[in-house]
UniProtKB/TrEMBL annotation:
Pfam families named in the record: Acetyltransf_3
Domain N-acetyltransferase: 14-153
InterPro entries: Acyl_CoA_acyltransferase (IPR016181), GNAT_dom (IPR000182)
Protein name: GNAT family N-acetyltransferase
SUPFAM superfamilies: Acyl-CoA N-acyltransferases (Nat) (SSF55729)
Length: 207
C-alpha cells in the first residue's frame, strides 16, 4: 500500500510543485539566499550538493518513503525552497512533514505557514491521517519554535538519534499534530496566511 503524490498544491502565497531535476538551478539560487547550508544544525544542501540531494529525494519517492516538493512564491514565481512528506506509513496512515528549508528572504512572509497548511490539509482531509509528525535537531531552536507555533505538541526527545556529520550525534525533538487538534491548527494557520495577503495590508515578520 502506498500514498500517491498529490501533485501541485496551490495556495495564495506559495505553490508546492513535485520536485524535479529541472528545478536544480532555481533551488541552488534559493539555497544561496542566506547561504543556508552553513548552519551546522541543519541539513540544507550546498550548491555543489544540490543535484545529489534532488536525486536522493527522488529515489526515496520511487521507494515509497518520501513525496518531495519544491516551494515557489505565488507572486513572483521564484523558487524558495523544498519540503516533503517523509517517513511514510501508508497503512496507518501517518506521515512526517520534514526535510524543509526556505530561502532567507522568504522567512517571515507567510509562505512557510501556507506550505504547512497545504500539506497538513492534504494529510488530514484527503489521506485521513490520525496524526502528522515533525522532527528537528535539539539545537535548532528556530525550527523548534516554528513547529510549536503551528500548534504541534512535543512528544519527546530521541537521544543520540542520528549522526548527520562526523563527530556529531544529534538529539531529535519529535512533535505531532493529531486529527482532533487539526481544526484549531487550521484556523491558526489560515489567520497567519491572511495577514500576509495584499488586501489585508500585510504584516511583515509574522510568518
Amino acid at each position: 500500500m502506498t500514498l500517491a503524490h498529490p501533485g501541485t498544491l496551490r495556495g495564495r502565497l506559495v505553490t508546492l510543485e513535485p520536485l524535479a531535476l529541472e528545478q536544480h538551478d532555481e533551488l541552488v539560487a534559493a539555497a544561496r539566499d542566506g547561504e543556508l547550508w552553513r548552519l551546522w544544525y541543519t541539513s540544507i544542501p550546498s550548491p555543489d550538493a544540490m543535484d545529489a540531494e534532488i536525486r536522493r529525494r527522488l529515489r526515496l519517492q520511487e521507494a515509497g518513503s518520501m513525496l518531495p516538493f519544491t516551494a515557489r512564491r505565488a507572486d513572483t514565481g521564484r523558487v524558495i525552497g523544498m519540503t516533503t512528506f517523509m517517513n511514510i506509513d501508508a497503512t496507518t496512515p501517518r506521515v512526517e512533514i520534514g526535510s524543509t528549508w526556505n530561502a532567507a528572504s522568504a522567512h517571515g512572509t507567510g509562505t512557510n505557514a501556507e506550505s504547512k497548511l497545504l500539506l497538513l490539509a492534504h494529510a488530514f482531509e484527503v489521506w485521513d491521517c490520525p496524526a502528522v509528525e515533525f522532527r528537528t535537531d535539539f539545537h535548532n531552536h528556530q525550527s523548534r519554535a516554528a513547529i510549536a507555533r503551528l500548534g504541534a505538541k512535543q512528544d519527546g526527545v530521541l537521544r543520540a538519534h542520528l549522526r548527520p556529520a562526523a563527530g556529531y550525534v544529534r538529539d531529535t525533538v519529535v512533535f505531532s499534530i493529531t486529527r482532533p487538534e487539526w481544526p484549531g491548527v487550521r484556523l491558526g494557520l489560515e489567520h497567519r496566511v491572511a495577514r500576509h495577503l495584499p488586501d489585508a495590508g500585510g504584516a511583515p515578520g509574522l510568518g
